[in-house]
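Continuing the series of single-chain predictions for the mutant panel. This is the parent chain; the variants come on the following pages.
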Amino acid sequence: MMEPQRPQLVISVTGGADFLNLDGRKREIFSSGLMKAVKSTGAWILTGGLHVGVNRIVGEAVNESQYIVKVKRKELFSETQDYLARGIRCIGVLPWGYTRDKHLLLNTDLNEFAQVRYKVQERTSFEDPVSLDGDHTHFLMVDDGTRDQFNGTVNFRTRLEEAIQAEEPSGLGIPVVVVLLEGGLGALGKCAMALKKNIPVVVVGGTGRAADLLAYAVAMTVRTASGRYILRRQYVTQLMNKILAAMTELQGKTDKQKKCADYVLECCARANMIITFDIECGEGLDHCILYALLTGGAQSSRLEQLSLALLWDRPDIAEYHIFPAESNWASWDLKDLMTTALLEEKVEFVKLFILNGLVMSDYLNVTTLRYLYNEACKSESHTHLRRLLQRSSRSNYHYLVHVHNILQAMLRKHHDPVYLSDTPQAVMMDSSINYLTFADPYQELLLWAIFSRRGNLARFLWERSETPLCAAVVASCVYQSLWKSLGAKNTVILNEYQKQKIMFETLAVELQDVCYQEDPPNAMGLVERRNPKWGQMDCLELAHLANDLMFIATPCSQASVELNWRRGLTRAPPLAVTLCNFLPFLISEVLVFMALLVIFILGYGIASQGLLYPGRDVSTLNATDVGQIMREVLLTPYWQMYGELLLDDIKGGDVETCYEESCTVPESCVSEGRNCVRDCVCENASEYTWAVNLMLFIYLIIGNIMLLNLLIAIFTYVFDEVQENSMEIWKFEMYRLIREYDSKPALVPPFVVFEYVWRITKAIWKVTCRRKKENCECFFLSSSTIKHYTFTNAISRPTHDPTIQEHHNTFSVLPAQHNPYPNTINPSIL
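Parent structure:
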């Protein structure tokens, strides 16, 4: 029953059997709402189990929404095996004496589990027993000795629900809610008993009889000054009239009418535990079912209610019912819930916690981030992260320094003192390291979300980061590195990484375009701004690592590249610039083709020369002979490919060549001392002329037709691929070239030595002689000189509470008058 997972809720549906009649629309509203509540919480359903009335409606809803799950089960003295089970558990609690064909369900052999064929039959009259409903998954049959009467299950079912709701170890600790659909006197009694056991009730109004009667009474109930709930006196008489109108079967039965009124008044006394849902209004039954649990006596704490809403993944309930009821939420109250929401990637809850009191800079410290990484590694879907961290840590428990090593390998540079301080040895010596915080906690969580494959959460955390442009480029770079580090067989994860990389690159491009349209100089300053966390690399260098062609091809990036190019031309040798401009783009493809061509030429040349000159002695060759052989092996096949066949040169000489080492003399001649003719292996090169001509024929066919056409096909493919993104590729290669020139000395060898001496002297002066280090950050960002540009909807930066961290829905750049170097690409390097 508890497989594949423990239920988070039990929904007990009670109501009419003989008189229930729901039309198509009402039935659809009830069924869809019930199934939505079941699927969002993994709930069990309890019903009467018989093929009639509300039980039948529930069974049909379960049948339409049923699904199959795989369950791992370990049998006694056997290995774990996989089983298929139904995902929705619908349990019928019914009287044994009122079950049709119950004799078929008897198991005569106690040593075996009998399987029976049970046929569900329609009911012909109200007095007849009823068949089991075939859409239920389990049945509990209660035998109190009565036959052909629906008795004995109400008390048992209520005690069962009470035991399910009771805290462990006496119970299961699973919350229970009762749903009333139509119904009669027995259904009202069931609701009254459930309310006494602190089990909340949802009344589906508009379905008739008991449900409408109870919905009316609850609406007329008021709360007294002492906290009691009572029905207003002026409505008591109207209640009796409504009982007679709704419960037609009670007409003329005064005792049952009074009993019905007593049940209604008992329920009204606990009106705070009753939620009314009007089926005429449409959707929302699932919302009422879940909200009813928040009104029950078992869940009085707001924090516990919030935990339930998080467990059910219902941020709507938390937003509209829980948070408004409590205005002051302490940050530490939400810390554990925030950790759960992050691990389960419940983005809407993360938003709610931030908007309702949780301060991320206080929440995220070394201990929390370390815990998040280690918890993410435990999931079966995050084997890639676990493998990367194990390579760094060589253990199953990881510290932030191991994450630093991964970032260092992926982005080449990563500098964060907090990450570097979190090592096993340092934590043992100084426990205060556990409570260190981060300058931009959203960026650190963004990196964690990327590594742990939480794409939706990563998008939200990027929206809240302090430097969204740099964060988007960094995210694209990390996804690119993850994509490269993964095997080709993991196509699903590879596609996911590629999709996320494109998304963050697109976000960076859109954000950069918005800023460049508003203020080009400051937008260029953001692109060129050095980031200490990433080894003083700017956004263009990070985009180059990520192979972000679109980002480098944007007008803002190209303006920065062009500015640097013009600055570089003034100090670069003209000859070097000219050569680089004419450097072939398809050099790699040409080299591969040339390698194939050389191998093919050597194969034909060596084979043909070996056949034409079989008698060459290597030991007697001089330099002239070696040069002649190289020309015949390389140049002759090369010119033949262009039509210079040299047929006269590929004829073997009519000279017989014998090999001394192969000569033998008969033993009889040796023993008798006679002068006999030796038997030697000899060959005539002219006999191989036909073979050389045949090889030439095959060589020319392959060389002239296949290889040259292969070269044409390679060029065509590369041309088509380049043509599709020609401008982006050209701009990306242009930036790469400029970056290469910018990083190299301006002087040519051997004068470059003087520049190196100057750089070393300058570095020594900065360390030893300079009194005060220039603060170059002031050239780019100042809290008193920040402009705010609202993001466009295309960037989808959500607008939250304006009193909470205003910069999260704005973009910050420095006004032009505060940038003393508006025409330089790198003013932070002195």
